[in-house]
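Let us practice reading a record.
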Amino acid sequence: PTPVGGGHDAGDAGLAIDAAAPPALAVDAAVAAGTAPDYRVIDVSHAGSAKVTVSWPDASAAMRRSPGRTACGTERPPRARIGTLHGVADAVVMIALTAGKAPPPAAPLRVIARDCAFTPRVAVAPGLGGALELQSGDEAAQTIVATGLGQPWGAAPAERPLARAHLPMLGHTVALTLDAPGAIALGGVGDDPALIVAPPTPYVAVTDEVGVARFDAVPAGSYPVMAWLPPAAGQPALLATGTVTVAADAEAALTLTLTP
């Protein structure tokens, strides 16, 4: 166990770090910059923008409805939240860029565990070097298990235990440092884990209620794009890929269609 100091907020005692994944005490220059090591910040004064829509028109009724109720009596979320025009919410979208705009300043991302569920269920952190804050929204004690997934949208995902956070009371918060790009699954509360992405570049986003992810300051050029819908409701993840071509001072549009 590695306790970390602080009142009842981020950094409070109650965080046990797995021996295979010791906490990072030093942050290298890339993490301080909020990006992966091979990413470069360049002039984007005449860059364009991109609108990526993730669609699942052939999703069955079973994929759209709740698979049941949680142990708390609340309704479990469906496999996918799909809008009237087939847009899919909570899909992670990435534009493959190795150079572009500067990342935003590192900032904390808070996930609340309440009523046998996590809020938000899927989120992208502002960048590397910030804190993932895990907070209890229940009176009863909870234990959240954080598992590093590497890049699960790739060919060879690699799971490793990161931490076990004990939250003994309402409002209790502990924090993990997001010091490496990739995905983190949060479990131990209810049936459905949360998925947090520490982005390698600033060009990673989660789709909104109508299935759209927007990117600004995209340098002119053609780039691979990936949409990844994390596993949920006992169903596997889905992946769609494509290419977006961005022109200077213009918006490009791309629709990616998910298929089982």
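A brief commentary: The radius of gyration is 19 Å.
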